[in-house]
Amino acid sequence: MSHDNVSEELRQQIRKIVADVLEAEVADLTDGSSFVDDFDADSLLVIEIFSRFERDLGIRIPQEDLTELDDLPAAYALVARHHAPAVVSA
Predict the structure, then answer these.
(1) 72 near 30, Cβ under 8 Å?
(2) Mind listing the pLDDT tens digit for each residue in 10-42?
(3) What is the pTM (predicted TM-score) of this model?
(4) 29-to-9, 34, 57 alpha-carbon distances in Å
(5) Is the separation of the CB atoms in 15 and 26 below 8 Å?
(6) Are 43 and 51 in contact (CB under 8 A)?
(7) In this structure, which long-range contacts are made by residues 53-57, counting pairs with CB atoms below 8 Å and at least 24 apart in sequence?
(8) In angstroms, what CA-CA distances link 3 with 12, 43, 87?
(9) What are the Cα distances from residue 80, in Å, to 11, 42, 58?
């Protein structure tokens, strides 16, 4: 999964959402951190992260993608797949 096309600003938004839901410090989240193993996230917290991505980032993510959400690289890739860049009208 590539998340190279996620801007640094969007990465920070994703990290803040995840940290907020997990009640963790943003600095404690690393790309190698597992939401489940390192932060004891249960399925309800993962669903909350998923819901916050949809609400706060204005995206729609298919329910079947929920199983992919366990770390920051997966979160970046998930958001990148469903986040449409703003369209600038002329």
Answers:
(1) yes
(2) 999 999 999 999 999 999 999 999 999 999 999
(3) 0.85
(4) 16, 9, 19
(5) yes
(6) no
(7) 53/14, 53/17, 53/78, 53/79, 56/13, 56/17, 57/10, 57/13, 57/14, 57/17, 57/83
(8) 13, 23, 20
(9) 10, 24, 12
